[in-house]
Amino acid sequence: MDVKLDKGTVVARHTHPGIESTYLMEGSIEVPIEGRETKVYKAGEAIQIPPETPHAGGKPATENVHLMVNYIVEKGKPLATFV
User: Fold this and answer.
1) How many CA atoms lie within 13 A of 39 on its CB side?
2) Quick one: which of 1, 4, 12 has its CA closest to 63?
3) Per residue of the chain (83 residues), what is the pLDDT tens digit?
4) Which domains does the chain have, with CATH numbers?
5) Residue 61 neighbours by CB distance under 10 Å
6) What's the confidence (pLDDT) of residue 8?
7) pTM of the full predicted structure?
8) Residue 57's pLDDT is what?
9) 26 has which bridge partners?
10) Phi-psi region of 55 (alpha: psi -120 to 50; beta: other; left: phi over 0)
11) Interior CA angle at 73 toward 67 and 74, to 5°?
């Protein structure tokens, strides 16, 4: 999934029923992931989030962000659940 977030966008806390793998193509974004230290990810870095792990965008992005996101989710399950 090709995802573009405008500067100032906030991503609500949510989970996925499967693995999320994300590659940052442009910009940087803070991502709080439950059970991990909050980190700012930058262009060229990747994030992998285990199934059912709450996470969100942290502070609003200070620049536009471009992500390539892949989800491995069982057919018929919702892609995301907001918590």
Assistant:
1) 12
2) 4
3) 999 999 999 999 999 999 999 999 999 999 999 999 999 999 999 999 999 999 998 999 999 999 999 999 999 999 999 99
4) 2-66 (2.60.120.10)
5) 19
6) 95
7) 0.91
8) 85
9) 66
10) beta
11) 165
Q: 13 and 54 in contact (C-beta within 8 Å)?
A: yes
Report the distance separating Cα 53 and Cα 34, nearest Å.
Answer: 6
In the chain, the largest separation of any two C-alpha atoms, in whole Å, equals 36
Answer for the pair 27, 63: CB distance below 8 angstroms, yes or no. yes
Nearest Cα residue to 83 out of 1, 11, 3, 5: 11
**Tokens standing for 74?**
């069982």
Which residue's entry shows tokens 């018929």? 76
End-to-end CA distance of the chain: 22
Q: What is the pLDDT of residue 14?
A: 97
